[in-house]
Amino acid sequence: MAQMYPEHAEPLKACAAMEQFNVDYCASFAEDAGVHISEKRADELRKRGEHFARKHDFAHVAKTAIRETPMADRLYAHLARRAGTAELKTLGDDLVNHENALRDWLRSVLDGESDGGEKIFAYLERHGITRQQVLNRPPRSAT
User: Fold this and answer.
1) How far apart are CA 12 and CA 110, in angstroms?
2) For residue 5, which phi and psi values (nearest 5 degrees)?
3) With contact defined as beta carbons under 8 Å apart, do 20 and 126 qualify?
4) What is the pLDDT of residues 45-83, one digit of tens each?
5) 103 contacts 69 by C-beta, under 8 angstroms
């Protein structure tokens, strides 16, 4: 999407970095629970998301994400409430914050007053990923 909408390239790159960070973040918990996350399946889901984004305009993709993220909020909030460890509670809370950051940026764009993804960048920075690291990352190859 960053190539399709260069006016939103920086926050879109940050969104991609935030998604990848969260996949990696969750993977260690899954591994500890004996759950295997197939790279093949993850790649299939990424490709499906890329196809959806290329097929629709920015507003449609944003509205779809805004409509769908409250479902994830409920799941992540439940995880945080029912967590058996401080680490799982932190994960749940972080994932809720992730969804809010994404949704807030998308709403700001649709309202015509983009906040530049500041909450997304702040989320990444809280996890040790700087704005420069995000912006200097090579783009994923389109598949």
Assistant:
1) 14
2) -130, 75
3) no
4) 889 988 998 999 999 999 999 999 899 999 999 999 998
5) yes
74 touches 99 (CB < 8 A): no
Token reading at 61: 């993709």
Return the number of other C-beta atoms located less than 10 Å from residue 93's C-beta: 16
Backbone torsions φ then ψ of 18, nearest 5 degrees: -65, -40
Three-class SS of 60-108? HHHHHHHHHHHHHHHHHHHHHHHCCCHHHHHHHHHHHHHHHHHHHHHHH
Answer yes or no: is pLDDT of 139 > 90.
no
Query: What CA–CA distances, in Å, run from 74 to 65, 69, 92?
Result: 15, 9, 10
Whole-number percent of the chain with pLDDT over 70:
97
Model pLDDT, residue 100: 95
